[in-house]
Amino acid sequence: MSGEPLVRWDWVGAHIGPILDRLGQHLYLAVIAVSIGFAISFGLAAVAIRRRRLYPLVTLIATAVYTIPSYALFATLVVFSGLSIVTAEVPLVLYTFILLVPNIVAGFDSVPQDVLDAADGMGYTAGQRWWRVELPLAVPLVVAGLRLAAVSTIGLVTVSAILGDRFGGLGYYILEGYHRTFPTEILVGGLLSIALAVAADLGFVLLQRLLTPWAAARLAPGVAVR
Amino acid sequence: MTVDASGHAGAAGKAGGASLEFRGVTKRYDSGVGAPGAVNDLSFQVPAGTICVLVGPSGCGKTTSLKMVNRLIEPSAGEILLDGVNVQSQPVTALRRRIGYVIQQVGLFPHLTIGRNVAVVPGLEGWSSQRQRARTQELLGLVGLDPRRYENRYPNQLSGGERQRVGVARALAADPPLMLMDEPFAAVDPIVRERLQDEFLRLQRELAKTILFVTHDIDEAIKMGDLIAVMQEGGRLAQFGPPDEILAHPSSEFVARFVGEDRGLKRLSLRTVADLRVEKMGRPVGLPRFTPGTKLRDALAILLVADTRGGIALDEGGRPRGLVTVDAIASSLTDDPPARVGA
């Protein structure tokens, strides 16, 4: 077979350093977006839980934001905040709301009423009940939301490469490979981005196992039931 | 039971109970007079150390009444006195920590082990972890669960009956003088329920807590109650008194219907062969024999099935004491009410 191989391993070998730098930048941009997105989503969810009537409005806004094409959003924000990290992060943060808010609300909704009644009846203060009962029991669904947000954000970070080579993480290689018609770069950028998303997802699964040992506990075979 | 050998078992509840009084307690809801759950001018007294059962059809306000004691619901009028002190004058969390609370769905915390579930109120009260652990083990033993086997399990690894036992242990943890129990045994099957009821009565004989117990089941009320408050729609108290009195002399058409046409039979379940005046007998052969603890209702059922004119009442030592006849059982209902079964 003649011509270029699909992956030019010599190119990969010569660029290990920059590739790892891009991987780090990718992770950095994603962590910031998910962290800020989570903090804001938690606030929005708290409002929606306390004032149920506002929940449809919150969902509507989050959904509306999600319908904006990411390219358009990045391009528009350049007008306001230039080619800065703010321009890179704002869309990433906004897109997490639709994934995080409903999951956080559902997490707190999933706390059984009888458990709340028991907590009140035993003399928990409102704060104690929230920290020691509601929050721990909401964890599984909250983490489920974080998994979605992490995977989605890691994918979207690549789009921020259109803001120039200071952004985009691994997306830089996808864009450059496209312009140079060089498949190796596209594959390196794409596959590593996927790998990062999978790793983040597994990380959250592990985190949830650690936080909720009770959810994994089931009857072991052979345990007598009365 | 696996209570440690240092003689801790009896220390569980020597504090005993507190007296409880409802004084003109009323709860109105916006939906108007007679709204489900409303309570209308409820007054009664529960002496320390007794079980008072609130019983009535659904919507009669019995759960509302219970929840006004630990202030999960605040009354519209009237007052509830715990050891003579109005519960509304006390800080709400402190009040609740002094009152055991058991509910039908148990409400165990799914994310805490059984041991930590039981230790919840001691934990809120700031007991040392050593003291919490000792107390947890003692209580699990008390409700018939081996601490070594159960302490580190999670609620979803237990059966319904086991969870209910944990619920009782948790309510007893800080040794409260008053226990509120809202249909505590309604969610388990009849066989387990019967066993839990029996065990709880046995426990209560040691602990002598004051207990306010809600049920819709008149049979459970008769079995568990030293006193019964029959409530009717609109949250009114229809009758208040010991079970035998309510069965013998229902104060209204409503109470008579609620306790059932078989109230005579129900009264027999409050009496045992030991309560019965027996007849002298000759040399009976092949007759059924009854231990002193046999309920008269069961003795009657056996006599009817066996188709004999009588059976033999045994004394504590298993020696024949005399003859039990259907007539004697029937006439026992005209006697004064006996001391409570097992009391």
Total tally of structural domains of chain A: 1
The side-by-side strand order for the widest beta sheet of chain B comes to 6-7-8-3-9-10
Q: Can you tell me the CATH superfamily of chain A?
A: MetI-like
Which structural class fits the helix and strand makeup of chain A?
mainly alpha
**Could you spell the SSE succession of chain A in H and E letters?**
HHHHHHHHHH
| CATH class (first level) name of the largest domain in chain B | Alpha Beta
Give the oligomeric state. heterodimer
The tally of domains of chain B stands at 2
Biggest chain pair interface: A-B, 25 and 34 residues
Describe the structure.
The complex is a heterodimer of chains A (226) and B (343). Chain A is built from 10 helices and no strands. Chain A is mainly α. Chain B is of the alpha/beta class and 343 residues long. In chain B, helix 5 (129-142) packs across helix 7 (160-172). The longest helix of chain B is centred in the middle third of the chain and has 18 residues, at 190-207. The two termini of chain B are 22 Å apart.
Provide tags for this entry.
heterodimer, A: 226 residues, mainly alpha, MetI-like fold, 10 helices, B: 343 residues, alpha/beta, Rossmann fold, CBS domain Like, 6-stranded mixed β-sheet, 4-stranded antiparallel β-sheet, 34% helix, globular
